[in-house]
Design goal:
Strand order of the largest sheet: 14-15-16-13-12-17-18
Helix content: 25-40%
Distance between the termini: 69 Å
Bound molecules: adenosine-5'-diphosphate
Radius of gyration: 23 Å
Largest sheet: 7 strands, mixed
Length: about 500
């Protein structure tokens, strides 16, 4: 892997604490694997609670001066970071593909979206403004100012090793906060390269810290520290709930981007070919491992056959393989246990009357070096029903169930029948149907005739068990700011 990077210095394997590249206090390391070959690609410092506390102390010490700088100053540093990251595109995409397994083209797409977050927040920091209120007391004036919340802990997942880093850390820096970042243990290399570039961009010592390693130990140290005033997390609902409970003790601010189980409704007036192409793009993006992947497909009966056929035609074009092979459009899953989960959902669906239209198992015939990779074939299951696991639970893999429905109300009811509420999609050409359904779906983000909903200008986040708070857009800054009210008596 090292030999493939143009800039060898981006291959960092130590933690980054207060401007120092730091091994674990007990000297331990752990392996980072390539999911497409099951080979070790690097050994990375396995930091623990003690190391995390050192990073928190560094972030705390750096906070007063960083928060006092003007937004314009901080914006200039962010802009520099943006430019350096942009120049390192190929190396960063290579790191992403090696550690997460995603096809290089998907790494490039993630890069373009993710780097835009830095650019956006470099600009957005300067738009943080307070208010002067219309007073009800003639002898007093009432004002509102906004101040950075303090030291922010960010915990990011492996499925977007790059863009989760930028969407969490760029607004924190822009707001004047300092950061202790814990990347997923599977994908620390991209995150460490980003810290290296932040260091080069002139982010001062202690403002940006990265701790890779023991998730539970690092998480506990973050949660328990009173110096950490905010925790931003993207990951599973299970871990998110645990962290939320942990943050209660120190009453931290929290932002949570958790799981999803996205409905995708195709109404009888939809453009069937477009719906089919979009659902395949969404359901199999990152091998089905995104929190906004289309998970439960509901199609209205009159067009069901035609839609299912079109879906299968699109799935047939997917090419399974290693991410660095330019022909690959579908990569491996992140770990062997993910294959077990997907297989469990598929087998359960089949046992309950589901019908495999394509796929259904691990591929029989991948050649070296991919024969040991964590692959599962893109799978479509027709005749799916709500009593199946694949309806209720997040599959997080390349298996797509298709349910049929008769009436609009039925589709909306099924779509909302989930503890999750992250993204929902539907296809229709009827304007009143579009408004009605968009308002009725209990989801934080809605895609109408379109699945590419993520962008730096739009608020990303969910309702119900899918999370709290919003990232990106003008709303994204608020998560890193406290509102302070000041009253002045005129005497
Ligand atoms: P996934 O199932 O997608 O891996 P996780 O919620 O386990 O989702 O992982 C998301 C992030 O949460 C990763 O950075 C992971 O290391 C981290 N994580 C997992 N367990 C804990 C924990 N106990 N405390 C803090 N972070 C954790």
């Amino acid at each position: 892997l090292l030999s493939r990077l143009k800039d060898k210095d981006l291959a960092q394997t130590l933690g980054y604490i207060g401007d120092e590249w730091t091994p674990a206090s007990d000297g331990s390391t752990y392996p980072v694997m390539d999911p497409s070959t099951d080979e070790e690609i690097a050994r990375v410092a396995n930091l623990k609670g003690r190391d995390t506390n050192a990073a928190i102390a560094a972030a705390h010490a750096a906070f007063p001066s960083w928060s006092k700088r003007t937004a314009k100053d901080r914006g200039a540093i962010l802009r520099k970071w943006y430019e350096l990251v942009l120049a390192a595109q190929d190396d960063i995409c290579t790191l992403m593909t090696f550690e997460s397994g995603k096809p290089f083209k998907e790494s490039q797409a993630e890069f373009v979206g993710g780097v835009a977050s830095i650019e956006w927040f470099a600009e957005q920091g300067r738009r943080v403004e307070g208010d002067i209120l219309q007073t009800v007391h003639g002898d007093r004036r009432q004002l509102v100012i906004k101040q950075p919340v303090g030291v922010c802990a960010s915990i990011t997942p492996w499925n977007f090793p790059f863009s989760m880093v930028t969407r969490k850390n760029a607004p924190a820096l822009a707001a004047g906060c300092t950061i202790v970042h814990k990347p997923a243990e599977q994908t620390p290399l991209t995150a460490l390269a980003m810290a290296k570039l932040a260091q080069r961009a002139g982010v001062p010592a202690g403002v940006y810290n990265v701790v890779s390693g023991d998730a539970a130990a690092i998480g506990n140290a973050m949660v328990q520290s009173d110096l950490v005033r905010k925790l931003g997390f993207t990951g599973s609902t299970r871990v998110g709930k645990m962290l939320m409970a942990g943050c209660a003790d120190t009453v931290k601010r929290i932002s949570m981007e958790l799981g999803g189980n996205a409905p995708f409704i195709v109404f009888d007036d939809a453009d069937v070919q477009s719906a089919a192409a979009n659902v395949v793009a969404s359901a199999f993006r990152n091998a089905g491992q995104t929190c906004i992947c289309a998970n439960r497909i509901f199609v209205q009966e009159p067009i069901a056959e035609e839609f299912e056929q079109a879906v299968v035609d699109n799935v047939r074009k997917l090419k399974l393989g290693g991410g660095m092979d330019p022909k690959t459009t579908l990569g491996p899953l992140i770990a062997p246990n993910a294959i077990e989960r997907v297989k469990g959902h598929v087998d359960d669906a089949l046992a309950q009357g589901g019908r495999v239209l394509i796929g259904g198992s691990s591929p029989p015939d991948l050649q070296a070096p991919y024969s040991k990779g964590y692959f599962f074939q893109p799978t479509v299951i027709a005749d799916a029903t709500p009593n199946m696991k694949i309806y209720r639970e997040e599959t997080f893999g390349p298996a797509m169930p298709v349910f049929r429905f008769k009436y609009d109300e039925e589709a909306v009811k099924l779509a909302n029948d989930s503890e999750y509420g992250l993204a929902g999609y539907f296809f229709t050409t009827d304007l009143s149907r579009a408004w009605r359904v968009a308002e009725q779906l209990q989801y934080g983000m809605i895609g109408v005739n379109e699945v590419g909903i993520t962008s730096e200008v739009a608020p990303f986040g969910g309702v119900k068990h899918s999370g709290l708070g919003r990232e990106h857009g003008k709303y994204g800054m608020d998560e890193f700011l406290e509102i302070k009210y000041i009253q002045m008596g005129l005497g």
